[in-house]
């Protein structure tokens, strides 16, 4: 996968040299090219923003540098997806990370201030796919931190970057549930013991316990995720586990 990032703060992206993303780049699984938006300004002050038409607070990013920047990095032939991090975008999810991980070329257009002049995105949409993506229901200073988070979520899904592919299957959000708690040695720490079942060696019991923990954690922390599961996702044991813990379930019939 090839990623281009356009920002007025390319230094924000220094962490992309580190750890597993740095390793993915060294292995050639991923290229990342950083671009300073001000490269495409032509005035002495290298201006990227101006006051909004119609009035109001804040500044809007001018279309000219953005237009030239995208002309320079978007590939001909419609193979590029432009990702615009913005609090007005669609919420970023693990499913979206999987979709983006399948793209050959992503361009992250990181806006600041009150965002980018809308005509930039409207025009870009004539030559590339454009996805406006929000990290969550809160407002950051700009798209840089969101781009970092999105790139990290995508890189983990590229074949060859996560050592143990099973961890991608069992992790939180893979099957619409949160993952349950994890434990390692020592078996007792500050008087707190690791649950006996995990030391039993009984793989059937361990799998059932882990599933129960995932269900209970999801019910407690993210009832919205539990409610969004298709009926067929919960079997008789699952329903019994949740009812036993006092969670009300509406589905009358479930798979055996
Ligand atoms: N830029 C500012 N706030 C943002 C958010 N919540 N998500 C993505 N990009 C942003």
Note the topology:
Layout: E1 2-7, H1 19-26, E2 31-36, E3 49-50, E4 60-61, H2 63-73, E5 80-91, H3 94-101, E6 105-109, H4 118-124, E7 129-134, H5 144-155, H6 165-170, E8 188-189, E9 192-193, H7 203-221, H8 223-228, H9 236-244
Parallel strand pairs: 1-2, 1-6, 5-6, 5-7
Antiparallel strand pairs: 3-4, 8-9
Helix pairs in contact: 2-4, 3-5
Bound molecules: adenine (ADE).
Summary keywords:
single chain, 256 residues, alpha/beta, five-stranded parallel β-sheet, two-stranded antiparallel ribbon, 34% helix, binds adenine
Could you walk me through the main structural features you see in this protein, from its secondary elements to its overall organization?
- The structure is a single chain.
- The strands form 3 sheets. The protein has a 5-stranded parallel beta sheet with strand order 2-1-6-5-7.
- The chain has helices at 19-26, 63-73, 94-101, 118-124, 144-155, 165-170, 203-221, 223-228, 236-244, and strands at 2-7, 31-36, 49-50, 60-61, 80-91, 105-109, 129-134, 188-189, 192-193.
- β1, α1 and β2 form a beta-alpha-beta unit.
- The protein starts with a strand and ends in a 12-residue tail after the last helix.
- By secondary structure, it is of the alpha/beta class.
- The chain binds adenine.
- Adenine is lined by residues 85-87, 134-136, 138-140, 142-143, 146.
Short structural description:
It is built from nine helices and nine strands. With 256 residues, the protein is α/β, with parallel strands linked by helices.
């Amino acid at each position: 996968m090839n990623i281009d990032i356009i920002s007025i703060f390319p230094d924000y992206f220094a962490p992309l040299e580190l750890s597993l993303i740095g390793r993915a780049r060294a292995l050639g699984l991923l290229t990342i090219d950083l671009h300073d938006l001000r490269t495409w300004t032509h005035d002495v002050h290298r201006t990227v923003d101006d006051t909004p038409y119609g009035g109001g607070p804040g500044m809007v990013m001018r279309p000219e540098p953005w237009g030239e920047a995208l002309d320079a990095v978007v590939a001909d032939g419609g193979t590029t997806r432009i990702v615009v991090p913005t609090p007005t975008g669609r919420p970023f999810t693990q499913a979206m990370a999987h979709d983006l991980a399948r793209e050959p070329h992503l361009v992250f257009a990181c806006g600041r201030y009150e965002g980018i002049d809308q005509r930039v995105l409207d025009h870009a949409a004539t030559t590339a796919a454009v996805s406006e993506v929000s990290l969550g229901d809160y407002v950051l200073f700009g798209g840089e931190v969101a781009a970092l988070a999105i790139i990290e979520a995508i890189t983990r899904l590229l074949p060859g970057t996560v050592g143990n592919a099973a961890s991608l299957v069992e992790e939180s959000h893979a099957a619409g549930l949160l993952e349950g708690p994890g434990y390692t040695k020592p078996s007792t720490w500050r008087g707190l013991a690791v649950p006996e079942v995990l030391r039993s060696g009984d793989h059937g019991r361990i799998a059932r316990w882990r599933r129960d923990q995932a269900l209970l954690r999801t019910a407690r922390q993210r009832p919205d995720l539990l409610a969004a599961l298709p009926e067929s996702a919960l079997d008789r044991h699952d329903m019994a586990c949740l009812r036993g813990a006092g969670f009300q379930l509406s589905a009358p019939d479930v798979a055996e």
